[in-house]
Amino acid sequence: MVGAVSPSSKSLGKKMLSNIDFSKDKLIVELGPGTGVFTDLIINKMADDARLLVFELNDNFYNSLSSRINDPRVKIIHDSAEFIHKYIGETEKLDVVISSLPLMVFPEKLRQDVVNESFDCLKDTGKYIQFQYSLQSKKLLESKYDQVKIQFTIKNFPPAFVYNCTKK
């Protein structure tokens, strides 16, 4: 359930959030926040009228986030990333999905379900942002998204790749 050997660095967090326009992107989902390094950065940057849905399955991380974060714009959800649609309105679409999930250690069906669910819940102009420690997810994300741009940061342990994916 945990895919990291240590919490993500703030440097990786900044790179993950660098392509988000927080003045326009109002419905944001975070998948697999762990200790909440990215969650805290998102909360500090998001607009007053924005919403953040945070999906965490690990009981310890979920309990820690739930007790620590008290912001009416944020909802901590104890459910799987493959069920985003259950938590947004029938006609709502997401502006951004930020994922720290270790996709390549997931069983194939779960990996496909998470990527498909994220894609299906995004606006046509939405962004899917994923970090991984390797380039193994490149083909999977390129099969779904029209544009996949990859950044690399050495200022994380271990160093990480950031995938910025868009439908158009």
Characterise the protein shown here.
The structure is a single chain. This protein has about 170 residues and is an alpha/beta fold. The protein has a single domain (about 10-165), classed as Rossmann fold. About 30% of the residues lie in helices and about 25% in strands. The protein is built from five helices and seven strands, in the order αβαβαββαβαββ. The chain has helices at about 10-15, 35-45, 60-70, 110-120, 140-145, and strands at about 25-30, 50-55, 75, 95-100, 120-130, 145-155, 160-165. It has a seven-stranded mixed beta sheet with strand order 3-2-1-4-5-7-6, with helices on both faces. α2 links the parallel β1 (about 25-30) and β2 (about 50-55). The mean pLDDT is about 95.
Entry summary:
The chain contains five helices and seven strands; from the N terminus they run αβαβαββαβαββ. The protein is of the alpha/beta class and 168 residues long.
Topology:
Elements: H1 10-17, E1 27-31, H2 37-45, E2 51-55, H3 59-68, E3 74-77, E4 94-99, H4 108-121, E5 122-132, H5 138-144, E6 147-153, E7 160-166
Parallel strand pairs: 1-2, 1-4, 2-3, 4-5
Antiparallel strand pairs: 5-7, 6-7
Helix pairs in contact: 1-2
